[in-house]
């Protein structure tokens, strides 16, 4: 199953919130936790990964908090996900040439490579700036639940 981790999902939420409030400078962890529904303890762990990736900066103390280290236009979803999960690799055969002895004759290898390249392109194209703009728009124009693809279409037919 292809699925991002809860940690990665929360990191994206946190970064969007920081992007929405970037003009305010540092945001307190209490405020971020409240606005993103991420516990403060989990937020601290995720923030540490985001600091290591130079995506956010933190300052301790009563006037401290977290803020973006770069403009939203310079941060994309690949940066955020890889800060949390490490390099995006759909299959171990794609880590390096020769990792799998069958890579030169395996149609699965070439398919996984194309799929990974497509995924990486999409993640790179989705900037935090775009996500922040979409968050602002959705705040005013929520999507109807029947317009959101919650589950895979074949799973929906098997449940009926």
Describe this structure in words.
With 160 residues, the protein is mainly alpha-helical. It has a single domain (6-140), classed as Orthogonal Bundle (Arc Repressor Mutant, subunit A), CATH 1.10.10.10. Helix content is 52%, strand content 5%. The protein has 7 helices and 2 strands. It has helices at residues 6-20, 29-36, 40-52, 77-85, 107-125, 128-140, 153-159; strands spanning 56-59, 65-68. The protein has a two-stranded antiparallel ribbon with strand order 1-2. A hairpin with a 5-residue loop joins β1 (56-59) and β2 (65-68). α1 (6-20) crosses α2, α1 (6-20) crosses α3 and α1 crosses α4. The mean pLDDT is 90.
Tell me the series of helices and strands, N- to C-terminal. HHHEEHHHH
Structural class: mainly alpha
* Main beta sheet: 2 strands, antiparallel
By DSSP (H or I, 4+ residues per run), the number of helices equals 7
CATH class category: Mainly Alpha
Low-confidence stretches: none
CATH architecture: Orthogonal Bundle
Furnish the topology, listing elements before pairings.
Elements: H1 6-20, H2 29-36, H3 40-52, E1 56-59, E2 65-68, H4 77-85, H5 107-125, H6 128-140, H7 153-159
Antiparallel strand pairs: 1-2
Helix pairs in contact: 1-2, 1-3, 1-4, 1-6
Any descriptors?
160 residues; Arc Repressor Mutant, subunit A; mainly alpha; two-stranded antiparallel ribbon; globular; 5% strand; 7 helices
In short:
The protein is mainly alpha-helical. The protein has helices at about 5-20, 30-35, 40-50, 75-85, 105-125, 130-140, 155-160, and strands at about 55-60, 65-70.
